[in-house]
Amino acid sequence: MKWIKRKLPSREILLQNPMLRPFAHRLMMSELWRFTRRSVPAGVALGFVTAIIVLVPGFQIFVAVLLCPVFRANIPVAVVATFLNTPLTTPPLIYASYILGLKLLGSDRMVSQNIGDGFAEMSLHDWWQWFLYEAGPPVLIGLFTIAVLCGAIGYLVSSWLWGRWIMSKRRRRSMKIDG
């Protein structure tokens, strides 16, 4: 925890960001910066969901920070959780979401028959049309499904770990009093 606190930008530094300045009054609320049993799991879940749905590195952090007041999530935890998705993990994530989206839509074909072998020679317009009408819906459905699952798992696991940490603190405190 101490390492994370040292590496994260402070509240003041984060709020000096020109893109966040219009929202600074909302982001200065102290409850968004306290580590509590409700704000930490909410921050983990929000960070995971944002990392998966918003695929643009850097913009993920911006979106997570802006959504923290809505969900009363811890800002530093949400920022750290957005690093679940990195430029290295984005291509496998998109591919997995495409496959999952195809399965959820009940389709088993990977690429349409009309594109087939000429995939590499496609123009930008053809790529856009292919993505919009064929790849887009499975990818979006898959991304949304993976994001919801990761967010829920992140929330449950961090909530459980938070409870275990509090119990260990109470045990140590009671041992000091008894001992």
Descriptive terms for the model:
single chain, 179 residues, mainly alpha, 8 helices, globular
Describe this structure in words.
This protein is mainly α and 179 residues long. The protein has one domain (2-111, 119-178). It is built from 8 helices and no strands. The longest helix is centred in the last third of the chain and has 55 residues, at 124-178. The chain crosses the membrane at residues 44-67, 139-163. Keywords: Membrane, Transmembrane, Transmembrane helix.
Strand-helix topology:
Blueprint (H helix, E strand, L loop, with lengths): L1 H6 L3 H5 L8 H4 L11 H15 L5 H13 L3 H7 L8 H16 L18 H55 L1
Helix pairs in contact: 4-5, 4-6, 4-8, 7-8
Biggest sheet architecture: none
User: How many domains would you count in the coordinates?
Assistant: 1
Structural class: mainly alpha
What is the ordering of alpha helices and beta strands? Answer: HHHHHHHH
Q: How far from one another are the termini?
A: 27 Å
Which residue ranges are poorly predicted, with pLDDT under 50 across at least 5 consecutive positions? Answer: none
Secondary structure: number of strands: 0
Instruction: Count every helix, treating DSSP H or I runs of 4 or more residues as helices.
Output: 8
Q: Short summary of the structure?
A:
The chain is mostly helical and 179 residues long.
